[in-house]
Write a structure and sequence with these properties.
The chain is α+β, with helices and mostly antiparallel strands. The protein has one domain (5-145): Roll (Ubiquitin Conjugating Enzyme), CATH 3.10.110.10. It has helices at residues 5-25, 130-145, and strands spanning 28-31, 41-47, 54-60, 70-74. The longest helix is centred in the N-terminal third of the chain and has 21 residues, at 5-25. The radius of gyration is 15 Å and the shape is globular. The mean pLDDT is 86.
């Protein structure tokens, strides 16, 4: 099943609007300048309060709501996607945000979890929408980055 770009964009815009009050209260910045019907991509920028490192998270949302977004981190210096240095050292040793809402983690995308099914992401009530995903990523990064496990970027 494929979802039209128009319907996916409608879902994305509505959910990002619902997230606006959360964004205003946090250090998360939304960059939706490239988001349109032909390019269902937006980014968030999170600055670690512990060391002021900038982390950029990209959401590719083709077929959104039928499939979860493909969530990837971008190196702020080079613009490269998915490289270790784009990630804080709080995730797997393999650069990936490991969560059911990330299409990258599924087997179909050479992900880590071979037994996860795409439909499972919608069962997670706290993260089955973009606001929950953004909040979850921010909390994971800030919580872990400001605690002992954070030691900077992956190398």
């Amino acid at each position: 099943m494929s979802v039209s770009s128009e319907i996916s964009l409608d879902h994305i815009l509505r959910e990002l609007e619902e997230t606006s009050s959360f964004l205003e209260k946090t250090n998360v910045q939304l960059d939706d300048s490239m988001l349109n019907e032909d390019n269902l991509v937006f980014r968030i920028k999170i600055r670690a309060s512990k060391d002021e490192e900038l982390y950029i998270v990209e959401f590719r949302c083709d077929d959104y709501r039928h499939l979860p977004p493909y969530v990837e981190m971008i190196d702020p210096n080079t613009g490269e996607a998915g490289v270790k240095r784009a990630y804080p050292n709080i995730f797997h040793s393999r650069p990936c945000i490991c969560a059911r809402f990330n299409r990258k983690t599924y087997q179909e995308h050479s992900g880590l979890h071979k037994k996860w099914n795409y439909g499972d992401w919608q069962k997670e009530v706290s993260t089955n929408h973009l606001g929950g995903m953004i909040s979850h990523i921010n909390n994971a990064i800030q919580g872990r980055m400001n605690g002992k496990p954070y030691k900077g970027r992956m190398q």
